[in-house]
Amino acid sequence: MKLTFTSICRIIVGTIFVLSGLIKANDPYGTGYKLEEYFEVFSQDIGATKVEIPQEIPDDVKNSPCFSKLKFEKQYEYKEIPASELSGFKKFLLKTFKYFHDHAQQLSIFLCVFEVALGLLVLFGINMRFATWSLLGMTIFFAFLTFYTAQFNKVTDCGCFGDALHLEPWQSFWKDIILMTFIIPLWIWNRQIKGGKLNKQEIFVAIGSLILMTTLVLIQFNWWFPVLFIGAFMLSKLVSGKFSDSKFQPYVTTLAIILSCTFFTLYGTKHMPIKDYRPWAPGNNIREQLISVAEVAEVEMVYLNKTSCEEVHHSTKEWSWLDSTFEANHLFYKQDKKIIKPAIEPKIKDFRLEDPETGQLMADSLIKNPGFTFLWLGYNVEKTNLKNMDRISALADYCIKNKIFMLGGTSSTSDKIDKFRHDNNIMFSIYQNDEKALKTILRSNPGLVLIKDGVVIDKWHYNDFPTIEKLQKNYLK
Q1: How far apart are CA 126 and CA 40, in angstroms?
Q2: Amino acid 242: pLDDT
Q3: Residue 169 and residue 150: Cα distance in Å, rounded?
Q4: For the chain, what is the domain count?
Q5: In this predicted model, what pLDDT tens digit does every residue of 455-471 receive, in sequence order?
Q6: pTM greater than 0.85
Q7: Whether residue 377 sits in one domain with residue 265
Q8: For residue range 244-270, what is the model confidence (pLDDT) as tens digits?
Q9: Domain that holds residue 378
Q10: Which of 414, 427, 424, 404 is nearest to 354 (CA)?
Q11: Is 274 helix (H, G, I), strand (E, B) or coil?
Q12: What is the CATH classification number for the domain harbouring 453?
């Protein structure tokens, strides 16, 4: 029974960590952006203090006998604490968080590799002491992290499964607690789990992990690579367990796991994600991603009876109740809003493409443009990689000759845009946009998007900018 129970724990823990790690490794830049957000929050909490904003309360409210019974929602702002007033420990923490923030991308790569590798080690049943201690430590740390962000409403999405599954901090916290209930038995009995030899228990773990991974992909993630990935490793496990009794096998297997995870993660830093879960994914209609629906709500005006201080509620559907007699005997307190149907936010936000000189917005023209449109994006032109920029220049010339709409976007200032265009012979206009929105569209600086009739046809990392011949052959038909 103990073997069966620990095998089930291995299947659940190993499969979830492999899946979570692969989704993040598929988009390591996105994972890095989320880490930057966390470190910014921690730095703010340590290097700044929360100060209440004084509220302007009318004199008739202040002088009312009901004033002591009123409750006003407090508002706060953060004010930076001078470095001279910080303790040595807080200064150390601030420097640490700044260092992690500045190296978030490198940390992202390490965490992605580490997470997938630990999941595979558990499924293989090798180096279990190291794997279970690491998993327990990671889970406790992230449980604390998500509890903190949930309790103080700091980060709305934990990023545990990238853009494939958005979990709120409280959901992620309870996910970590549930995972811990399966990790603790593995941690307790880690010395007794030896998965090197092929037996019924190891076959059960291999098949069980493949079935669980397939189920998760079918239900939520719609990406078959994790199934193929884990299937290949489980097949190699069964084969190596049957034909090899070498004492070096666990070390060779561990090395193969680390190398394969590192290669996959590094691939994600050099190219577009294999599976794109974002609104600008190829095949998505941008026009549909911009649709929003306003909330349906019923608003009530809340007054206080000046004599009894009791609350009096009136709907705003009609105003016949509001007259001079009512106002003379009642004091306005607040508005109450009952949401009947919540608003549906657009999936694409803050996409503007503003002309730095005239303030004209070009996003609508791009979205509604019939036919082909090329969108070049470099969220920071000073950090833009100039590799294959000759292909962009050639594409701009081709678009001018063939009357194809092409434009660019960046978060840089107008003077830096002008310098970049001059230095690199850029023949299309570059407009300004929020950096975060541009990073959501592309994980590459720069990158290229091809759109036709409002539908994203394809996207390219700067390492993969296509030639004119390739575009004519595969797209511009």
Answers
A1: 37
A2: 63
A3: 5
A4: 3
A5: 999 999 999 999 999 99
A6: no
A7: no
A8: 666 777 778 888 889 999 999 999 999
A9: 363-474
A10: 414
A11: coil
A12: 3.40.30.10
